[in-house]
Amino acid sequence: MALAQGIGTFRDIPDNHYARDSVQWAVQNGITVGCRDGTYFCPERTVNRAESVTFLHRYNNNVIGPLENRVRALEGRVVQTPGTTFDPNAGFGNEPTPTTVPLRKFTTRGTQATTARSFNLPAGVYEAVFTLEAAKAAADHNQDDDTDAEPVTLIQVEYRESGGAWKTYAVDTLKLESDTESDTLPAANALFQQVPASGTEDVEVANVPGRLPTSGQIRVSAYMADNTITTPSKPSGDDDSDPDRTTKYNFSWGIILTEKRD
Known about the structure:
By secondary structure, the protein is an alpha+beta fold. Helix content is 15%, strand content 25%. The protein contains 3 helices and 10 strands, in the order H-H-H-E-E-E-E-E-E-E-E-E-E. Residues 1-5 and 90-99 have low confidence and may be disordered.
C-alpha cells in the first residue's frame, strides 16, 4: 500500500500527472494517506470540511511544528519541559547544553519509466543512500527482439539543473557497476541492491560548481557497453565511446538524503 510505503505512488497518479511530485510530498509528510484502500489518491474528488481541517492539522503537526522547533533551537529559545529551569545557553550548537534538533530527511523514488524527479534542497551536507530493486538480473537484460542478452554494466544516479546536461560528478559514488574487483549490479539471487552496502555516502548541496545544485532534476539510468544499440544507419553503433543508455531494463529506485550535522 502507498500508505505503508510512504512514497506517494497511487494507481490514479501516473508518472506524467502534473501533481505527481506534490502528491509524493504530501504522503511523505503525513498530510494524506490516499483514499479507498490506500492505493488510490482520487485526484478529482471533492474535499469536504472535515477532510480540509484534517489536512491542515496534519500539515501543522508534521511540517510547521518541526520547523518552529528548529527555529526556536537556532535562536536559543528551546521549549522547556514544564517545571524545569530555562537554560539561556541552550541552543543550536551552544555549550554546555546543545539542543538536539531533528535531522531533516528528503526522499524520492521512481521507476525505470520515470523520466526525472524534481528536487529543491537547502544547502548543506547530506548522508545519501541509493537503493534499487530490479525485475531481473543485469546480466539477463535483453535490449532487442533476439535471444541474445545485452547485459547492463552500469546503473547510476544522475542530476541536472533546469535545461542543462545530465551530470554525475557530485553524486558519482551513488552507482552500481561491474568491474574486475566487484560486481554490485543486480543478480538473480540479489535483485535488491543498496549503495553503499552499509552506512552512507556524503553529498554536498550548494550553488557552486562540483556540488549537487540546490534545485533541479534527478534520475537513475542503466547503461550497456558502448555500441550495444545499433541502427540501420549506424550498424556499428554510435560515434562516441560512452556506454549506451537503455530504457528497457525494469527497476524501481529510491534516494534518501539525510541532513548531516557536524
